[in-house]
Amino acid sequence: MSVPKIAERHFNPYEALVDSTVTFLFALFIWYYNIKTLPAFSSRDAASGFSTTRLIKGLFLGIAVMFALACIQQYLLSHINFGPVMLMFEVRGILVNVMFYMFVHLLYQSSQNQQVGIELERTKAANLGAQYELLKQQVNPHFLFNSLNTLKYMVESGDAHSVDFILKLSDFYRFTLESRKMDLIKLSEELQILDAYIFLLKARFEEGIDLSIDIDKDQYQSFIPPFTLQLLIENCIKHNIVSLDRPLKIKLYSEDDSIVVENHLQLKRTPEASTGLGLENINQRYTHFIDKKVEIQLGETSFRIKLPIIHENRNN
Would you say domain 139-308 falls under CATH 2.40.30? Predict the structure, then answer.
């Protein structure tokens, strides 16, 4: 667009310097303006796409800046006809603005794609680590050892519930194998896993453990990370006294939009070593799925854990 006007005139070095300086300053301003107005990268909005609004704002600002620079040029080169020169500079400014916007936007999208790839790889690595830790928690060697000892005692004593114990133990580990690769399962399925687990605990502790369940039936179709309730019950037994003289009372109930696991505090005198991986594992999985944390409430006589309910329309 500038070639015809340039061809009509014979620029002296001074005019060429002023013209080049105006164009350079404008190009420098537009370049940094486009970079500064880029939206920050967000894993929730990884591909913001082409923004017509940002482009229009940039064009209007570019026209205003170019007008100011053209006025400065007119002040330095007062002998040049301001009208044609102004039009030439404005057209040049619009073309420079659009070209820089598209180029910066292309670089930005390329960077976004790389960031998304990195985030996906980090998520995969974290998910694999969580699955591995969850598997270790599920197939607890101590729990299996205690269950087999209980079964041995029941068989030797001729307990009529030995067969039921074997079936429940089989069901529990079948649930383990089927659910370990799933991110979420229905609450009704989780309660089936818990039922098999409680049966095994009852065979071991008899009346030393008292679990009451009062969950709204409407919430049975909600979702929960697999083996969450089992891990929480196991955590209660790990840190509290469980005996016929002092039964451990555990309540499982719904409250507002949460599932609550509450137990009466009767801590062991010599507490077992705790790594905190169980609760941290559960908390990380909830944060990953619905961006909500598990609430832990420690009172004087009770310990409560509130699990947010994950509904079916959880953004797939």
Answer: no
